Amino acid sequence: MPPKFGTSGLRGLVTELTPDLVANYVRAFIAACPIGTGLFVARDLRPSSPAIADIVIASARAEGLAVTDCGAVPTPALALASMGASAAAVMVTGSHIPADRNGLKFYVLQGEIGKPDEAAILAHLGRASAEKAGTVTENTTAGADYVARNVGAYGRSTLTGWRIGVYSHSAVGRDLLLDIVAGLGATVMELGRSNTFIPVDTEAVDPDIRAQLRVWARDHGLDAIVSTDGDGDRPLLTDQSGEVIAGDILGQITGAALGANTAVTPVSSNTGAEQLFDHVVRTRIGSPFVIVGMAAVGGRVVGYEANGGFLLGFDATGPAGTLPALATRDAVLPLVAPLAVAKDGLAALVGSQPARFTAADRLRDVPTEKSLALIAEFNTNIKKRFDFLALFDA
User: Fold this and answer.
1) Residues tagged active-site
2) What pLDDT digit, counting tens, does each position of 4-48 carry?
3) Relative to the CA of 19, which of 62, 194, 213, 324 has its CA 20 to 30 Å away?
């Protein structure tokens, strides 16, 4: 199956992300979307990402753009840097999917692109190179600025007394996450750093990883373990026993703690949101749909997904400073905000949340064509659909 837009960005097998295909999408993005002062580029730590990032940079320069290379930094750090410079951005990442695949995430001046932008990009495919010679410079502060954003908003004593493990694995923002947790005053223990890419899916955490998290929490006497997916826009947080806290729970806790009155979240998120916010907008699954919903509502609005990715739609105030809006999925805020308000521990905080129902987990490694065929069969055979759903009737 050729690379295509999914719930967040363009994704496909590395073997199919050829130089011609990547250049084609970069040229289409530049032609279809507002670019502002230029293009910022960053990448995750999977083996194929440096070469693909080089293609993105070369293709943008050939269109005459001023390109800024941010190197290996998390997606929200790239977005923070590019938006601050009124520039567009491309993140080379496959997020949480295996290393034999990769992708591109596109950002306009206001943040992550929406579905109309994706349609515009597809409509502009097939353009020839302008064969110009744009410039390229390096940005060496995007990571440090991202750390400063979080530590500045929450203060250096917020997590004093906490003993927190950081599951580093192969996340591109692992060193920054260590700096943030330590900068907030916690005692930090690094866990599981890997030189091999590990596809950590925070929405469907592998059973072996769950078991390891419990062992680490017990053996090291930790109050919590924090981590992210590969590109740092989905959080993973455990309580003191190593039990993973669902991403939509983190989202609603974070939104409430920041004083949001409206939440935009997909239908897969749990129903506790309706009891916490004045207004809840339900969308289809995928951050582009959440972004469109947030833009339509405005005001003190936040967005979050079942995978934990959190979007801040207004300028908020943390315990120690301001927290400007950031219209892209972020993993650090939904880690820090719950920790900051969990005075009696994370398990107690989660237990205090409203009664809820959720359908956020999912099967792993099921080919899309098989799941679509099953859904089509259910749509045409009502009896088979009811017989299948009856298996889950408690």
Assistant:
1) 95
2) 898 778 999 999 999 999 999 999 999 999 999 999 999 999 999
3) 194
Beta-carbon contacts of residue 166 (< 8 Å; ≥ 6 apart)? 174, 177, 178, 181, 188, 189, 190, 191, 225, 226, 227
- Superfamily of domain 155-351 in CATH is Alpha-D-Glucose-1,6-Bisphosphate, subunit A, domain 3 (3.40.120.10)
Tokens of 113: 């692109």
In angstroms, rounded to a whole number, what is the distance separating the alpha carbons of residues 159 and 289?
Answer: 34
SS (HEC) of the chain: CCCEECCCCEEEEHHHCCHHHHHHHHHHHHHHCCCECCEEEEECCCCCHHHHHHHHHHHHHHCCCCEEEEEECCHHHHHHHHHHCCEEEEEECCCCCCCCEEEEEEEECCEECCHHHHHHHHHCCCCCCCCCCCCEEECCCHHHHHHHHHHHHHCCCCCCCCEEEEEEECCCCHHHHHHHHHHCCCEEEEEEECCCCCCCCCCCCCHHHHHHHHHHHHHHCCCEEEEECCCCCCEEEECCCCCECCHHHHHHHHHHHCCCCEEEEECCCCCCHHHHCCEEEEECCCHHHHHHHHHHHCCCEEEECCCCCEEECCCEECCCCEECCEEEEECCHHHHHHHHHCCCCHHHHHHCCCCCCCCCCCCCCCCHHHHHHHHHHHHHCHHHHHHHHHCCCC
pLDDT digits (tens, 9 = 90+) for 286-339: 888 999 999 999 999 999 999 999 999 999 999 999 999 998 999 999 999 999
